[in-house]
Amino acid sequence: MQKLIKNNIRDVRFGKKCVIVKPVNLYECELGNNVFIGPFVEIGKDVKVGNSTRISSHTFICPKVKIGKNCFIGHGVMFTNDKFSNGIINFNEKDWLKTKIGNNVLIGSNATIMPVKIVDNVVIGAGSVVTKDIKKTGIYAGNPAKYLKPLK
Amino acid sequence: MQKLIKNNIRDVRFGKKCVIVKPVNLYECELGNNVFIGPFVEIGKDVKVGNSTRISSHTFICPKVKIGKNCFIGHGVMFTNDKFSNGIINFNEKDWLKTKIGNNVLIGSNATIMPVKIVDNVVIGAGSVVTKDIKKTGIYAGNPAKYLKPLK
Amino acid sequence: MQKLIKNNIRDVRFGKKCVIVKPVNLYECELGNNVFIGPFVEIGKDVKVGNSTRISSHTFICPKVKIGKNCFIGHGVMFTNDKFSNGIINFNEKDWLKTKIGNNVLIGSNATIMPVKIVDNVVIGAGSVVTKDIKKTGIYAGNPAKYLKPLK
Prior knowledge:
Number of domains of chain A: 1
Distance between the termini of chain A: 57 Å
Largest sheet of chain A: 8 strands, mixed
Oligomer: homotrimer
Number of strands of chain A: 22
Strand content of chain A: 35-45%
Number of helices of chain A: 0
Mean pLDDT of chain A: 95
CATH architecture of chain A: 3 Solenoid
């Protein structure tokens, strides 16, 4: 009556010197060089993670997310690819929305990222909910996340 | 000096064609037919999950939560059954509060659900904190979650 | 090309009668007597947890956090030790900020705790983001968390 799928690492393209702390659930994604993946992380299909980016524990990266180089993705960060905008969920992969995170982006723990684009050199405060594209470098926080101040 | 409890599946009533991605911690709960449970999910005692409902990774469903059919519970969603309203926690199960989620309810990732009732055909935005009963169909978001607009 | 670190318990000082639900990732930390650790919990270096405190599932306690006695740390609670205040992350442990949680503190699920001090006898609502020190007993909630009312 039940099908048990064991936690695993399936069809992942690893760069050099990646470090993975088990248990994780990674499938059909691509990790650059020197990528760190903490425990209790799930990364889905068609995700790309750039060189020297760190994905912290408890984070979920949904299909169709691209993350740049030298980023820090905090703990318990949830990415999304469906806005439920018509009150239904899309089971059709081609309708899932994309997210693109630039280089040197730091995302605080427990942040939630709707399907958006974020430019390089951005800080997202812990616990924030990012609902719109971020087109300008700086520090953002809140629910919904708003511009707070420039980087020093 | 320590007692180690291994992650497991204990006293769970499964419907037909359930899919479970390990590791999970499920105990004394009841899952309908075609239920999907993602990795890193904990579901406690006296929880019922309706047919064709999907519980995504990193979600915690506390004791005394009933979820209807065809729901999508996002990633990192936390249910609660104690409001700490007197500044103490209730270790007495009989004092834990109930939550009832209707059919066709979509709960976005990282949402927090206080002990409430939610009617059928509701969307809760990602990162929201639901603090009150939701009695009317529609889309809700924010902390605390407020009514945004009707479903299309 | 990859180094796999298995989920484990390494260099942990346990008090008497601790209960740990696997899988967890605990290292170089100290747990008092009667401490409960739920599944999918990560606790880092230099963390101290007081007697009879309960750390619920999916929670991450970063290095340099001290938690008092008789606390309840909810599910999916994320502690932090770096404010990214200059737009960079500190890889240098000596620059990580400290957090101190008093006794009888109840932290609701999905809360995010910036590096702060919280006095004894405080309740933090579920889904809150605590950005400042809490110097007065009472109930706090919101993003950012604000004082709501006294304990009864």
